[in-house]
Amino acid sequence: MPESMLTAEVGREIGSSATRRLRTQGKIPAVVYGHGSEPIPVAVVAREFQVAMSGDAGLNTVLTLVVDGQNYLTMAREIQHHPFRNTVTHVDFQIVNQDEMMSAEVPINLVGEAVEVNHGDGLVEQQLFSLAIKAKPSEIPTSVELDISSLTIGGVLHARDIALSDGVALETDPEAPVAAGHPPRVQAKAEGEGAAEADADADA
User: Fold this and answer.
1) Domain range annotation of the chain
2) Fold of 102-203
3) CB atoms within 10 A of CB 163
4) For the whole prediction, is pTM greater than 0.90?
5) For 9-66, how does the pLDDT look when each residue is reduced to its tens digit (9 = 90+)?
6) Highest mean pLDDT among 6-10, 35-39, 186-190, 199-203
7) pLDDT for res 156
8) What count of Cα atoms within 13 Å lies in the side-chain half-sphere of residue 24?
9) Contact 156, 125 (CB under 8 A)
10) What is the CA radius of gyration of the chain?
11) Tens digits of per-residue pLDDT, 62-98?
12) Do 102-203 and 4-95 have the same topology in CATH?
């Protein structure tokens, strides 16, 4: 089901001066495209867009975009920002189909306790923070979880270890490392110094 509804104004003028006028009016120039439709130049109210995108789904929010009385199921697939101000300068709304698989990036949350790593005074390092997946728009998760309970010092958990819901397919390389267990910093430093001394003795 769509998570948000947003009204877009049609008939906006094209060009830098017209775009500047829109932005001074608190509006964002945008375009609606996809599924064989001709691109439609539109404008949306910046505040309304921010509210529509403020849910847990973030960039994967599914929007019902009302354009000249017609509803389009869309996702904001490209959002451009001002290089210095925290403002949106342009949005591309892609028309999607409820039954069509879509590519998306979702954040990875580490859950559980790496008991063996913690007992050994080791460190857990998260090496991958988002996962590329494919799912129908309504089935794209807001995030995915990786249970690190089985992680050990020297061990690595991979993308394939993340449990995905039915209907969600993995697009990231299954062997991509997500979390690693490292030895204590003091031990790692000592091992590094020992290796350096051994190299020095060999060169002597």
Assistant:
1) 4-95, 102-203
2) RNA Polymerase Alpha Subunit; Chain A, domain 2 (2.170.120)
3) 9
4) no
5) 998 777 778 888 888 899 999 999 998 888 999 999 999 999 999 888 888 999 999 9
6) 6-10
7) 98
8) 6
9) no
10) 24
11) 999 999 999 999 999 889 988 888 789 999 999 999 8
12) no
8: Cα separation from own chain's centroid: 25
Closest C-alpha among 58, 133, 139 to residue 96? 139
Q: Look up the CATH number of domain 4-95.
A: 2.40.240.10
DSSP the chain: ---EEEEEEE-PPPSHHHHHHHHHTTEEEEEEEETTEEEEEEEEEHHHHHHHT-STTGGG-EEEEEETTEEEEEEEEEEEE-SSSS-EEEEEEEE--TTS-EEEEEEEEEES--HHHHHTT-EEEE---EEEEEE-GGG--S-EEEE-TT--TT-EEEGGGS---TT-EE-S-TT-EEEEEE--HHHHHHHHHHHHHHHHHHH-
What was the pLDDT predicted at 19?
82
| DSSP β-ladder status, 4-10 and 37-45 | antiparallel
**Contact indicator for 33, 93 with CB cutoff of 8 Å:** yes
Scan for tokens 């867009």, then name that residue: 49
Q: Whole-angstrom distance between the N-terminal and C-terminal Cα of the chain?
A: 71
Q: CB within 8 A of 138, min separation 6: which ones?
A: 1, 2, 62, 98
Mean pLDDT confidence for 166-191: 86
